[in-house]
Design brief:
Elements (H helix, E strand, L loop, with lengths): L2 H19 L1 E13 L2 E12 L2 H17 L5
Antiparallel strand pairs: 1-2
Helix pairs in contact: 1-2
Protein name: DUF3185 domain-containing protein
Organism: Paucibacter sediminis
Keywords: Membrane, Transmembrane, Transmembrane helix
Length: about 70
């Protein structure tokens, strides 16, 4: 399996997951304060929305890589 096919499969999977879930979230640690024996930290939850057009474009690009990536010209 060459790198073009692997990239095509990865794009297809990412595009399908983007369409199915629509967004993903992660936790980001923003502040860290140490006052003697006391430690304070603030964590923020960030959400990233994945546009539908991006998922469709990833699926199309992955399909194109799978179909055309193995050809040698």
């Amino acid at each position: 399996m060459n790198t073009w096919k692997i990239a095509g499969i990865a794009l297809l999977i990412a595009g399908v997951l983007g369409l199915l879930y629509g967004s993903f979230s992660y936790t980001k640690e923003t502040h860290d304060v140490k006052l003697g024996p006391i430690e304070l930290s603030v964590k923020e939850k960030q959400t990233v929305n994945v546009p539908v057009w991006l998922g469709v474009a990833a699926i199309a690009a992955g399909g194109a890589l799978l179909l055309l990536g193995g050809r040698r010209g």
